Each structure stands twice: as C-alpha cells, then as structure tokens.
Q: What sequence folds into this?
C-alpha cells in the first residue's frame, strides 16, 4: 500500500508537458506516444485531450511511478488481446480527474507481454482499485500479476477449467466445441 | 445472533435474488450483528458479451452494447459509438450531440429516481418508494415518446443519432421538466428533512475520501465521498462542451462530506435537478442540422472497415464513469476486440470498506448505495462454521430486520 495519503492534484499539466517529460525519461523504452484532441459543442472546439502510449515491459513500473508524481493515477480498466507472439495489455488510466474543467487526460498505456513469459508486475500495492482487472486479465488471458495477493477467479465460474483462457486466440483459447451458439 | 462473542460467521448474500439485474455474491464475516469483513464474488452473470463482439461489425455491436444494462443502456451505446468514432475519426453533427445529451440526462433522471425509491423501500419507507415509481413514469413516457421504447432505445448510431426531437417531443420534454420541478420536491425533502431517513443513512456504509480515491470510486459514490469528479466537467463531451456542468458534492450543500449512504442519496437527488436544467438548456440551444454523419449504412460500414486503431471513450453514466475501448483493424469488418468497464465494476471494489463495522441489517442499504443494479435480496444463508449448522434467512426476513431497525430508531 502506498504510504502517502491519496489525493488528487489541484494543478494540472498539459499533455505536451507530460509527453516531453516521458520522452526525456524513457527514450527508446517509450515505443510510441500520441496525443489526441476531442472536439465538441456547436463551435466544434477542442474540449480535452487524451494520450496513447506504448512502453517496454521492463520500464512499465517506472512509467507508472513517473505518472504518479503528477497526480494520483486513477485506474479505469485493462483491456487486452492475443496478438500472436505477444499478449498486449492496455492500461486505461486518468490523470487530473479533479483538476478543473477540460483538464482530464485519459491514458492508454500499451505493454506487450511475450507469450514465453506471461508475467507483469502488479499495481495493487500502488492502486488497490486494479484488483478486479488484474484478476480478470489473469483468468481471461493467462497473465500472472506478481504481487497481487488474491489471484482467484473473478468472472469465470468456480468449476471453470483454468487451462482454457477465454480471450486467447491460440491453442489455450476456447475450442469451437467450447463455444455454444445461441441462435 | 450473539453479539461480540469474538468469533465470526460467514454470511453469503447472493448470488441470485428475485429482482436483481446483476447477480453478485457478498460474503460477510460477521461478529454478532457487526460486519467485520466482506469479500465480493461477481461472475454469476458473465455473458461473454465482449467475446461475442468479435464476430460482429460495429453497427451490430451497438445493439449488443445496448443490452449490457437495462437502466443505462443509452450510456453504454454512447460510450461505445464514441470509442468507434475515436478509432475511425468520425465527427458527430452538433444537433446529434445535443440529442445524445438529452437522452443521457433523461436516463440519469429515471435511474436516480428508481434508486432513490428503492433506497427508501429498503429501510421501510414504502410510501416514498411508491411515490418514486409514480414520479418515474413521467420520464419513462417521455423516453417512449422520443425513442419508441421505455428501455433499449435504439437511438444512437456511429456518427449521430437515429431519432429527432420533434416539436411534439419538445413539448412533452418541457412539460416533464415543469412536472418534476414541482413534484420532485418530495424526494428532496426526504433527503434533507426526514429524521428517520437521516438516522438510517447517516454514518452508514462510510467511504472516506482517501479510500474513494485509492479504490477508484466513480460517479455519485465518489462525489458522495466529497470528490469533485464528473466527466461532464473534467472532459466535456457532446453538448456538455457548451454547458457549465459542475460536480455535485455534499459539502457544497451541507458543509461537510461524510461519504455515507445519506451523502450518496443527497448527491443523486440533487443531480435530478441538475439534469432537468441540462435538458432545458439543451432544448433552448438545440442547433439545426443533420442527425448523422453518414446516413447510408453500407457506406458507413465500408468506411468503418477501413478504420484501423484503438478508440476509447469515458462518459458520465448515472452510476459513474462508463468506459469503452475498442480496436478496429483495417480491412476487417468485425470488431477486433472490445472492452467495457461499467461503473459497478469499479465501485464494487469499495464495498468491503463500506461494510466494515456496520450491522447486517444495513447490508442491503450499503449494497444499494452504490446503485449496483442490485436492488433487493432474495435470501441469505447464515452458517455456523464450528457447529456446522445452517440457517436460511429469507429475503422477507432480511428485509424485516432492516425495517425493524428503522422502527427501533423511531422508538415504536
């Protein structure tokens, strides 16, 4: 558990400031970074901006800790996909959630986890709110989160055969016989 | 049950109960009447909707997304179509943005009134529950007039909406606003004046500001703990870009945020008034123009087939931040993957904290307080681990115990 008292930052930073800070600190480990603008309303003006980044697994925890120096990193959800040799995890988080109108920055942090070594460091000690998501990615895609205390099933039934990972697209995924057509 | 004997019993609540839209199990460790700890086990209704989307194109997935939840069906499709619009870079006409906003707020009104009624029912205030159900009919009628349906409106599509606000609908909307501005005050009075409601909800199921932050609480649950969080303010989407929406937090009204069930009640009741204002402003400023970016469906599908990339969107649904993420792959008709994070997914992580130190009789109220799509208990099983004995407590008995506590407080 994080020792500092969780609190939201009152002052926000621009996505460009954050991007520059990350580019300086992570160099090649930051494989891609994109800032997107979102418009709305009658005048079609930019209302808020989000960031999409891809980081090497070895630097993932360091990236999270850097982001946490800006604000309490609000964790939303993890999405993931079986991309052949790797399982890609996307951490969806928010910075500056409570810092003012239009200040929110959503982050989509992608990490490629090689299938030969399906391990990720758990964020549970930093952000307890990640628990269900890490358990979900463990049962659905077979990722082992190191440091997560409760690795029990969360959405799959108690008697589920844990060798079958429902969202995988390789031999560990559900076979056609496992899928029941509803119509 | 004996109180304070020092040994704990495990009390499972759930997973399946009459009237629940979303079955879930809560294992409560109780010492006498006190809840010492709680473990939540979801999963009883995992339908594999995200898996099913892999064999559907984005337009087909709209109708799948709409069926995730019966109450906030429109919130889910707005989050979904906005994620698709993000991935495929599709702009939405201003009029469509306003209509989306109006339907989102109508949905918030009916969700919050339903919740307020059910919360009153849980602690034995049946007359308030019945009045809530009568009040809610008005907004359901307006939704039906606008969309043709009471739930699952089929109104949103990628790049716009499929229904217009006609002069007749606008008249019905304005009548509804006038109706609620005069009639909804009853619920407001329950929230701020009723001593029994205050006694049953104040200091019950407390979630501190710090715990709400660290456990990533959302929507009225987070705002009830005093956090100024609202995506309509921090990331104005659709017509919220033209509106000045501010997060409703209890400290602005009562001077202090307790983070208890009462504060969550207060936030929702006040948000009904906020939604009425938003709808009124949207009607006043409703721009003319197209309803859709591309009305020809084959053309739209062909365009979506070429799109490549991840899209994501979070919107402020009645229960909190509803997030959808999607991947479209160039040349493929179907959605590659889709991830849905309904607000309850996050808010349920905070339940164990809210339960701690409360009475078993408060458990239904605490479960309800995050508005988790779980509205009543069918039965629970009390197990004495040492003796191996089991006692089934029916839903009626559990409700009875909740209501008896109200009567005790009233001195009856």
A:
């Amino acid at each position: 558990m994080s020792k500092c008292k969780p609190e939201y930052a009152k002052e926000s930073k621009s996505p460009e400031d954050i991007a520059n800070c990350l580019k300086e600190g992570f160099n090649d480990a930051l494989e891609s970074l994109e800032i997107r603008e979102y418009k709305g309303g009658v005048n079609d003006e930019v209302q808020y901006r989000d960031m999409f980044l891809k980081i090497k697994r070895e630097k993932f925890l360091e990236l999270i800790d850097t982001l946490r120096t800006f604000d309490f990193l609000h964790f939303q959800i993890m999405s993931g996909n079986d991309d052949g040799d790797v399982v890609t995890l996307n951490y969806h988080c928010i910075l500056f959630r409570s810092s003012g109108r239009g200040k929110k920055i959503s982050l989509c942090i992608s990490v490629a986890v090689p299938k030969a070594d399906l391990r990720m460091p758990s964020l549970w000690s930093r952000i307890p709110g990640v628990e269900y998501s890490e358990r979900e990615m463990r049962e659905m895609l077979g990722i082992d989160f190191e440091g997560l205390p409760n690795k029990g099933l969360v959405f799959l039934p108690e008697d589920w055969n844990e060798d079958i990972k429902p969202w995988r697209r390789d031999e560990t995924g559900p076979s056609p016989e496992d899928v029941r057509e509803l119509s | 049950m004996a109180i304070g004997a020092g040994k704990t019993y495990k009390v499972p609540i759930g997973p399946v109960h009459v009237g629940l839209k979303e079955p879930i199990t809560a294992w409560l460790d109780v010492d006498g009447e006190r809840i010492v700890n709680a473990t939540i086990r979801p999963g009883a209704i995992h339908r594999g909707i995200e898996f099913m989307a892999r064999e559907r194109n984005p337009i087909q997935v709209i109708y799948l997304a709409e069926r995730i939840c019966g109450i906030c069906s429109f919130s889910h499709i707005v989050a979904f179509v906005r994620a698709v619009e993000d991935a495929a870079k599709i702009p939405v006409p201003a009029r469509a943005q306003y209509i989306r906003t109006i339907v989102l707020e109508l949905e918030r009104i009916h969700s919050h009134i339903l919740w307020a009624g059910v919360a009153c029912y849980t602690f034995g205030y049946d007359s308030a529950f019945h009045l809530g159900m009568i009040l809610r009919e008005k907004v359901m009628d307006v939704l039906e007039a606008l969309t043709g349906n009471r739930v699952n409106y089929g109104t949103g599509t990628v790049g716009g909406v499929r229904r217009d606000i006609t002069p007749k609908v606008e008249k019905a909307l304005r009548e509804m606003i006038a109706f609620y501005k005069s009639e909804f005050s009853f619920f407001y009075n329950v929230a701020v004046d009723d001593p029994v409601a205050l006694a049953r909800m104040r200091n019950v199921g407390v979630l501190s500001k710090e715990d709400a932050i660290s456990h990533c609480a959302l929507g009225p649950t987070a705002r009830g703990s005093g956090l100024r969080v609202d995506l309509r303010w921090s990331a104005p989407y659709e017509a919220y870009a033209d509106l000045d929406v501010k997060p409703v937090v209890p400290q602005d009204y009562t001077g202090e945020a307790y983070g208890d069930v009462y504060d969550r009640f207060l936030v929702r009741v006040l948000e009904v008034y906020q939604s009425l204002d938003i709808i009124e402003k949207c009607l006043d400023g409703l721009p003319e123009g197209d309803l859709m970016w591309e009305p020809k469906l084959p053309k739209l599908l062909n365009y979506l087939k070429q799109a490549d990339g991840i899209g994501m969107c979070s919107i402020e649904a009645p229960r909190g931040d509803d997030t959808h993420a999607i991947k479209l792959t160039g040349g493929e008709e179907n959605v590659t993957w889709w991830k849905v994070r309904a607000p309850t997914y996050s808010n349920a992580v905070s339940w164990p904290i809210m339960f701690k130190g409360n009475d078993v009789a408060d458990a239904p109220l605490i479960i309800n307080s995050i508005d988790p799509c779980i509205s009543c208990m069918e039965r629970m099983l009390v197990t004495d681990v040492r003796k191996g004995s089991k006692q089934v407590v029916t839903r009626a008995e559990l409700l009875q115990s909740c209501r008896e506590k109200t009567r005790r407080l009233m001195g009856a």
